[in-house]
Amino acid sequence: MAQVLEFKLPDLGEGLTEAEIVRWLVQVGDVVAVDQPVVEVETAKASVEVPCPYGGVVTARYGEEGTELPVGAPLLTVAVGEPEAEPEGGSGNVLVGYGTSEAPGRRRRVRPAPAGGARVNGAAPASAANALAVPPAAASGGPVPVISPLVRRLAREGGLDLRALAGSGPDGLILRADVERALRAAPERDGGRTAEAPAAVAPAPGATEARVPGPAEVRVPLKGIRGAVADKLSRSRREIPDATCWVDADATELMRARTAMNAAGGPKISLLALLARVCTAALARFPELNSSVDTEAREIVQHPYVHLGFAAQTDRGLVVPVVRDAHARGAESLTAEFARLTEAARTGTLTPGELTGGTFTLNNYGVFGVDGSTPIVNHPEAAMLGVGRIVPKPWVHEGELAVRQVVQLSLTFDHRVCDGGTAGGFLRYVADCVEQPAVLLRTL
């Protein structure tokens, strides 16, 4: 006899507690295999596909596209075969880098359809999901089942009575999509009543005519990756007393060295990889900048490794992938890892582990065509090196005026971890390596 297993949104790790449904990959009635991706969700870290640990027939889906669900909320139910055909513990495989998912500690059967509203394959008909009716909680005077406080606030701000709304979630749970659908329907109902009103009376002579309304405001929700960036930058500004120093450097020799490396054959070396190699060498000399502040313990924590973050602009917003153990990598390895993480950032497939744990950030804002910047430190790190565009400029070289490839370097640092002398020494060493790449030979 078949049994119905409930698959819940798995623990996302890295402190993430909710995700937004971007796209369903299966329909009710579809047959799914073990570990087949069933839904694409977006968290504050990345957009990923979530596989289901059960194989069978999808009997119900919970949540429409655009709905935010907390960890542990039901995603779908699957009817599987005999108990021996599928272990209760699920597949046990890793779910998109978020850890393993355990099966719920209970089994449940598909409940019979309520009178007056038959269910098809365990899912409520579309007409029932969209109807406005009094849910059981409202009739009994009990609390209205709502998925999150955010949904309550959304309804309150829109003047919507939740007791007049039928939820499309499990057991009548009111989802964000239900509230948004009801709010969209409200102007249509109001418009119907307005159409019956008498025509407007022409203004009296001499009266001021009504002003034509201008364009409506555009409101963009601070959620997903954009919301996570906003929260992190705001926290950095609140907690970190930062300062910035900068210097111009002659990058002509660094560019020549890169050209010579790539002319020798083998994988091409990127400029970002060379700058990263300079960063790791500088951090070995000035470890104070490869640290973080434990505010509760009032301690500065110096890290024995360099997990190097780098800023990457994507269609979903700014993300900072992290190259693990950058201090132990050569130029070729750094080039390959930068390319892999950049492609994953553009396709939205970075895992939370690839977006967290950085100890220092390299920000190449020169790709945007700007010379300088005072970036915000990537909390909880202690410093960020900024690199502007490399452009030909007049420069005094060996006592004579010449056209050289010049770059502006900036260092924004947490003034709690070091003073200006340390920060200036770090930046000067970076500039020396850019101007004379042979200086790096000391660290090889």
Helix-strand string: EEEEEEEEHHHHHEHHEEEEEEHEEEEH
How many helices? 9
CATH topology of the largest domain, anyone? Chloramphenicol Acetyltransferase
- What's the average pLDDT? 80
Strand content: 15-25%
* Largest sheet, strands/sense/barrel: 7 strands, mixed
CATH superfamily of the largest domain: Chloramphenicol acetyltransferase-like domain
Give the domain tally: 3
The low-confidence runs, each spanning 5 or more residues with pLDDT under 50, are 83-132, 134-140, 192-201
Number of strands: 19
Q: What is the name of the CATH class of the largest domain?
A: Alpha Beta
What is the SS-derived class?
alpha+beta
Q: Report the oligomer.
A: single chain
Percent helix: 25-40%
What is Rg?
A: 29 Å
> How far apart are the termini?
66 Å
Q: What best-fitting shape do the alpha-carbon axes yield?
A: elongated
Report the CATH architecture of the largest domain: 2-Layer Sandwich
What are its keywords?
single chain; 444 residues; OB fold (Dihydrolipoamide Acetyltransferase, E2P); Dihydrolipoamide Transferase; Chloramphenicol Acetyltransferase; four-stranded antiparallel sheet; 23% strand; transferase; acetyltransferase activity; Single_hybrid_motif; EC 2.3.1.-
